[in-house]
Amino acid sequence: MNKNLFWLIALSFVLSFGFASCAKDTTVEDPYANWEVRNDRYLDSIADVARTHPGEWEIYCNYKIANESTSPGLGGSSVVTNPFETPASVNDSVYMKIIEPGTGATPLFTDSVSVYYRGKLINGTVFDQNYTGELDEQIHVPSHLAMQTKRTDGQLVDGLIVGWMTALQQMKEGQRVELYIPADLAYGESSQSSIPANSMLIFDLKLEKVIHPKGIENYSLKVK
Known about the structure:
alpha+beta
């Protein structure tokens, strides 16, 4: 009996030592390790692809720093250049891969829009969406978003992140794009809920409808 007890204690010691060793050797990889560097590299790769595929991609500079001088764009569009840099920094532009063309109106900053969207990070993590699975416009309901909001002091400010504001003012009703927004045109060095700081954002975005303001302030641009 004593001999059996001895071997039982010895076996327990060996097993516990093995488990401890495994626990020490097993490390959980941080999915956001070197996050800023990874996002910068991803952005560079997207910019390279967009610039070399003019029939499939469009590039638009941050609307806040765009000036009146334009250079020939991709796919028959115009790329407004950053007046402070030649060529514009990859961080100053949004990149749109055209999934479906549009033929309707293009919104101005005074409008509201009706959109379908799904947002994800470069690692595939979905952080926001208004539909699940494949988009089905017969089932899914679009979101209605104001491109401007009024602060308590009465001043009008952007109602959406700069990347969305820039892209939407170049889209047409019915158009669907895969939109790549650099961190500088999204939330920058700030984190937002499930979005870490320095995150490039990727959206599957469809502009379903432009909602014009009524009355004398209907300045929306009609595009045939």
